[in-house]
Write a structure and sequence with these properties.
Shape: extended
Radius of gyration: 21 Å
Low-confidence stretches: 157-167
Number of strands: 0
Distance between the termini: 28 Å
Oligomer: single chain
């Protein structure tokens, strides 16, 4: 991205990147043939940035936590597995016996996918606000969907060095 340019094709680059299972998949906008090209924009004249953060110090601390974390080691292993799968040409058998054998050989490590944490450091619980609970009482379908979301969010990995904001 050029200075004062938009982020099409390049995306927002974090100051402190963390391993992400999606790093092993080419799903970002830049991989799409229909991605928009970056444009130059006029600099905002009234914006006054805050004082710079100590990025190098924060990055060093983050790298140490990532290297010590069994959860991030699992994510890195998953990234490597995904990249290895993408780099090779795969022939998938159409007959059931052959497909079943192929599926077992190409299955990702189940504990990575299921979200089981090696550190088991639960620092939060996932629940609804009392108003949301009241709204779900008479709607079985919404309650079922909500419970699935709560379960999925609750299994998610908690980065203990920062904050998450769910919209």
């Amino acid at each position: 991205m050029e200075k004062n340019g938009t982020i099409e094709r390049s995306s927002v680059k974090p100051d402190i990147p963390l391993p992400d299972a999606f790093d092993g998949i080419d799903y970002r906008e830049k991989f799409s043939p229909a991605a928009l090209p970056a444009e130059t924009v006029t600099k905002n004249a009234w914006y006054k940035p805050l004082a710079a953060l100590p990025i190098s110090e924060l990055k060093k601390g983050s790298e140490e936590r990532v290297n010590r974390s069994p959860d991030f080691q699992q994510i890195k292993k998953l990234i490597d597995q995904l990249r290895a799968q993408q780099e090779r040409t795969v022939t998938i058998p159409l007959k059931w016996d052959g497909f079943e054998k192929w599926a077992k050989q190409n299955r990702l490590t189940p504990d990575m996918i299921e979200g089981s944490s090696a550190s088991n450091s639960k620092k939060f619980t996932v629940d609804n606000h009392s108003l949301d609970k009241a709204l779900l009482v008479n709607n079985e379908y919404a309650r079922e969907v909500n419970n699935k979301w709560l379960l999925d969010i609750g299994r998610g990995y908690l980065y203990t060095g920062g904050f998450f904001h769910f919209m």
